[in-house]
Amino acid sequence: MKPNPKKNKSQGVLIKYFKLYKFHFLVGFLSLLTVDLFQLQIPVITGNITDGLQSGNYEFSNLLNQVLTLLLIGLLIACFRFIWRYFIFGTSRKIEYGLRNDFFGHLEKLSLRFFNEHKTGDLMAHATNDLNAIRMMVGPGVLMSLDAITLCVLVIYQMITKISLNLTLVAIIPLPLIAIGGIFFGRAIRARFKDKQEAFAHMSEMVQENISGVQVVKAFVQETKEIKAFNETNKNNYDKNMRVIKLFAIMNPLAMLVTGLSIAIVLGYGGYMTMLGNITLGDFVAFTQYLLMLVWPMIAFGWCINIMSHGLASLSRFQNILDEKPEIIDEETVKQIDSIKGDIVIDNLTFNYPGSGLKELDNISVTVNKGETLGIVGRTGSGKTTLVNMLLRMYNPPRGTIFIDDVDIMDIPLKVLRHSIGYVPQDNFLFSDTISRNIAFGVIETSDEYIECAAKNANVHDNIIEFSNKYATVVGERGVTLSGGQKQRISIARALIKDPAIMILDDSVSAVDTNTEEQILNHIKEERKDKTTIIIAHRISTIQNSDKIIVIDEGKIIESGTHDSLVEQKGLYYNMVEKQQLEKELEKE
C-alpha cells in the first residue's frame, strides 16, 4: 500500500511542536500513567475490605489502615492529575499559540494572487475554528486516547492476573464491537466535519462582507435580501453541523450499550462463579469495579474518534494554506543594496495576471529620472494600477523590464525596494487605531513632531486638531469615522513620513476639492524636490504640472509628453481635458 503524501504533510505541521514539547508530553503521560496505576489499587483494597468484613475476624486497625491507604491514594491521584492536566492541556495551548503565529506569519508572506483567490471568511475560519479543533486534538484528543488505551490494557491485565481469566474473556467479548464501530464512524465524521468547516467559512465570509459593506447594503435598501441570503447560508451551516451531531449521537449510545452488555455478563456469570466459590465475594466486588473503570475508556473512545476526526480534517485544511509557497521573494541573484536613489527605467514591459490570457500591460517603456514627477492618466481599467503593482513587486515583472538605479528590480532586496517606496493606494485603507499610529505605520521610530509635519504637508493637520482627542482619535474600522478626503490625506501623510526615494499616488486626491488638491501637490513638490514621484489620476489638474505624462489605454502607452505637448497632439489626453473643462463649466452653472 502506497503512503499518502498529503496525509504525511498534514501531520508534518505538528511534528516540530511534538519535538519541541516532547518533555512536556512525556511528563504528562507519565503522570497519567501514575494516576491509572494508583486507580488500579482501589478495587484491590476494596476487595480486601469486603473479604475481611465477610470473614468476621477483621480487626478495626486493619480496616483503618486500608481506609487511610485509600485516602492517600486519592490525594496522590489528585496531585498527579493536576500535573498531567497542566502539562498536556497547557502544551496544547502553546501549540495553538505557535500555530496561530505560524499561520499569520505565513499569510503575511503570500502574494496578492493568493488573497485574490481566497475569501477572508475562509481564512478567518482557519485561524479560529480549525485551530481550535487542532488544539482539541493534540490536547484532550491525545490525552483521552492515551488514557483510554493505557487504562484499558492495565485494567484487563489486572482482571486476568488478579481475579479470573475466564470471567475476563467473557466480559470483554462485546468490546471489539466498539473498535469496529469507531473505524466506521471516524471516517464518516471526518468527511462531514470538513463540510461543516467549509460551511462555517462561507457564513463567516458573508458576515464579514456585510459588516464591511453595511453602507452599500443600506444605501441600496438590500437589508431584507441580505437577511434572507444569510438565513439560507446559516441554515446550510446548521444542516452540516447536524449531520456531524447525528453521527456522534448514534455512536455514544452504541458504545454505552456495548459497555452495559459487558456489565450484565459480569453480574450474571461473575455472580454465578461467586456462588460456586470459584472467586470470593471480594474478587467479585473488585472485578465489578474494574469493569466500571472500563466504562470511561469506552466513552473516551467515542469522544476520541469525534475529536481526532475533527482535528485531522481541520489539520488538512490548515496545512493546505501553509503549503502555499510565497511567490514574491528575494531571488538568488539579489544584490547587497541598502537604499535606492530613484532613477526608474521601464523597458518593453508586457504582463498579464496569472490565469488570465489578456495582456494587462503591453510593451510599456518609460524613463523617470531622480527628482522628476511622472503623471499617469487613462481610462478606468487601462492598466495604471497594474503598472504600480509591478514597481512594488506585488507581482513579479519579467526580468529585464524594470530597472531602478540601473539595477533589475528582481535583483533589489524586496524589503529595501518597498522601504524605499511610499505608496498611497486607491482604497486609502486605515487601521482601526489612532490617527498618529496610522500615519506612523510605515516607520519604526518617529516623533509627534514628524507626524504633525507629515499631516501638515498632506493638508490634514487642521482637521485632526478639531477632533476631541486630536492625533489620539481612533478612526474605527477602515477609517469609518472619517470622510473620504480625510482618509486620503492621512494615507498621503503615512507615505510622506517615510520620506521615500520614490512616492506613488494612485488616484489619491480624488476625494478632495481642487484647492485642497493644489495645496497638497505644492507641499509634495516642495518637500520632494530631489526625489521621484509618480502620480496616477483621472483629474487632469492633478498631473498637469508633472515633468512627464503618459497616457495608458488598454495596457499600452498611446501618448507621452508634457501637458502642453499632449494638448497639442489632440488625442485622448486632449479629449479628457476638454471633457473635464466642460464638466467644470456645467457645475458652475
UniProtKB/TrEMBL annotation:
<dbReference type="Pfam" id="PF00005">
    <property type="entry name" value="ABC_tran"/>
</dbReference>
<protein>
    <submittedName>
        <fullName>ABC transporter ATP-binding protein</fullName>
    </submittedName>
</protein>
<feature type="transmembrane region" description="Helical">
    <location>
        <begin position="141"/>
        <end position="160"/>
    </location>
</feature>
<dbReference type="GO" id="GO:0005886">
    <property type="term" value="C:plasma membrane"/>
</dbReference>
<feature type="transmembrane region" description="Helical">
    <location>
        <begin position="21"/>
        <end position="43"/>
    </location>
</feature>
<dbReference type="GO" id="GO:0015421">
    <property type="term" value="F:ABC-type oligopeptide transporter activity"/>
</dbReference>
<dbReference type="InterPro" id="IPR003593">
    <property type="entry name" value="AAA+_ATPase"/>
</dbReference>
<feature type="transmembrane region" description="Helical">
    <location>
        <begin position="290"/>
        <end position="308"/>
    </location>
</feature>
<feature type="transmembrane region" description="Helical">
    <location>
        <begin position="63"/>
        <end position="84"/>
    </location>
</feature>
<keyword id="KW-0067">ATP-binding</keyword>
<dbReference type="Pfam" id="PF00664">
    <property type="entry name" value="ABC_membrane"/>
</dbReference>
<keyword id="KW-1133">Transmembrane helix</keyword>
<dbReference type="InterPro" id="IPR003439">
    <property type="entry name" value="ABC_transporter-like_ATP-bd"/>
</dbReference>
<feature type="transmembrane region" description="Helical">
    <location>
        <begin position="247"/>
        <end position="270"/>
    </location>
</feature>
<dbReference type="GO" id="GO:0016887">
    <property type="term" value="F:ATP hydrolysis activity"/>
</dbReference>
<dbReference type="InterPro" id="IPR017871">
    <property type="entry name" value="ABC_transporter-like_CS"/>
</dbReference>
<keyword id="KW-0813">Transport</keyword>
<feature type="domain" description="ABC transporter">
    <location>
        <begin position="344"/>
        <end position="579"/>
    </location>
</feature>
<dbReference type="InterPro" id="IPR027417">
    <property type="entry name" value="P-loop_NTPase"/>
</dbReference>
<feature type="domain" description="ABC transmembrane type-1">
    <location>
        <begin position="26"/>
        <end position="310"/>
    </location>
</feature>
<dbReference type="InterPro" id="IPR011527">
    <property type="entry name" value="ABC1_TM_dom"/>
</dbReference>
<keyword id="KW-0547">Nucleotide-binding</keyword>
<dbReference type="InterPro" id="IPR036640">
    <property type="entry name" value="ABC1_TM_sf"/>
</dbReference>
<dbReference type="GO" id="GO:0005524">
    <property type="term" value="F:ATP binding"/>
</dbReference>
<keyword id="KW-0472">Membrane</keyword>
<keyword id="KW-0812">Transmembrane</keyword>
<keyword id="KW-1003">Cell membrane</keyword>
<dbReference type="InterPro" id="IPR039421">
    <property type="entry name" value="Type_1_exporter"/>
</dbReference>
<feature type="transmembrane region" description="Helical">
    <location>
        <begin position="166"/>
        <end position="186"/>
    </location>
</feature>
